[in-house]
Amino acid sequence: MPRCASIGLVTDPQNWQSPTNDGQNGPRYGEQVPPLAPPGGGPQPGWNVPSGWTPPPRPGLIPLRPLGFGTLLWAPYQVLRRNPKATFGSALLIQAVVTLATLVVVGSVTFFALSRVDSAPLAERDAVQAGAWVGIALSALVPIALSLVAGALLQGVIVLEVARATLGEKLRLGQLWRLVGRRLWPLALWTVLLSAVAVLALGLVTGAVVLFVTLGGAWVGLAVILGIFGVLLFIAGAAWLGTKLSLVPCLIVLERLGLRKSVQRSWSLTRGYFWRTLGVQLLVAVIINVVSQVVVTPVSILFSVATSLVDPNAGFDTYLPSVILYVLVLFVSLVLGAVATVVQSATVALIYIDLRMRKEGLDLELARFVESAPGSGGTDPYLVGAAGREAPGA
């Protein structure tokens, strides 16, 4: 046998037949023969794929592996598309309720208080006006408290939705609200604590500046310096603490921890990934803000122009375009606010999942949970050291 035949070369190209057909449609002499696919349809030869390698599973929202920077940016928007009724619907409903409560409570109190000021005798008008402003300020506490609780509920809903979407599950709005309702008060308490700390820090800076200004003289210059550095220090402190503690809502909802343990664990998970966590959240916030301004600014300009053209002595027909534009501005603001809340909360949830994949091998636990038999009652993969507890929505 010739040597060329022993090593598999074609010695007679005129009689050569393709091993994949009957020779009638085989390649002609000089044509390139495509490589044969291995049994089972795996990767083609020459791809340099390691033996036994398989791509990470992607049962739902994201692949079960540590996430890249790009995935952390686009995946939050996929949360809106994947389950819009539960995510966008929850955000829009909650924001609409808060807005309506603000208009009703604050608007009613303001109208009543200003009416009393107008009808009060001239000698008592100053005292009535002071009481009116106090009443208006106190009435604003009602929608503020409602917005804190509603914001905590919405953040918990989005966190839970991202966690279950990663496993390929799609819960309904009622299921999400019911499951998050069990952890609502820790979430609300955490939101109140954060707001109280922020208000206290700003109050200290503002109080010191006002005190130095009232002293006059050289103290005014010190007040200006203190105000500038105080604001910069507040921004830096808010960015640092906000980043280190940004995972607390995820830990309250998904790992069912108390406030103290959630704070400690969030601090630990973000250790070594501070700038990455801050950068992703900051970039997502900038993108949302730019898009919101592009959409809202033209409508706001139209509203301003329309109100400036209205004749104060005209009737309701003249005011009608302004009323329609105001409702349009309010509706656009509600929609953009709902989208922004969903995307930002989803970003935090994805950062939490990514950090646990990198530090604790959560991707293996998630893959094991996905591969288990449906309805087998497996333990929740997000819980830490809590075997035997059923997964939410299972």
What can you tell me about this protein's structure?
The chain is mainly α and 394 residues long. The protein is built from 13 helices and no strands. It has a domain of 211 residues. Helix 5 packs across helix 6, helix 5 crosses helix 7 and helix 7 runs antiparallel to helix 8. The N terminus and C terminus are likely disordered. It holds the Pfam family GPDPase_memb.
Key terms:
Glycerophosphoryl diester phosphodiesterase membrane domain-containing protein; disordered N terminus; 394 residues; 0% strand; GlyceroP-diester-Pdiesterase_M; 69% helix; mainly alpha
Task: State the gist of this model.
This protein has a domain at 69-179 and 272-371. 69% of the residues lie in helices and 0% in strands.
Task: Provide the succession of SSEs.
Answer: HHHHHHHHHHHHH
Write down how many β-strands occur, each being a DSSP E stretch of 2 or more residues.
0
Biggest sheet details: none
Globally, the shape reads globular
Relative helix content = 55-70%
Distance between the termini: 68 Å
Share in β-strands: under 5%
Structural class: mainly alpha
Q: Which stretches are poorly predicted, pLDDT < 50 over at least 5 residues?
A: 1-47, 386-394
Overall average residue pLDDT = 78
Number of helices: 13
Secondary structure blueprint with pairings:
Elements: H1 3-6, H2 69-82, H3 84-119, H4 125-139, H5 141-166, H6 173-181, H7 184-215, H8 219-244, H9 248-254, H10 259-269, H11 274-309, H12 316-360, H13 362-371
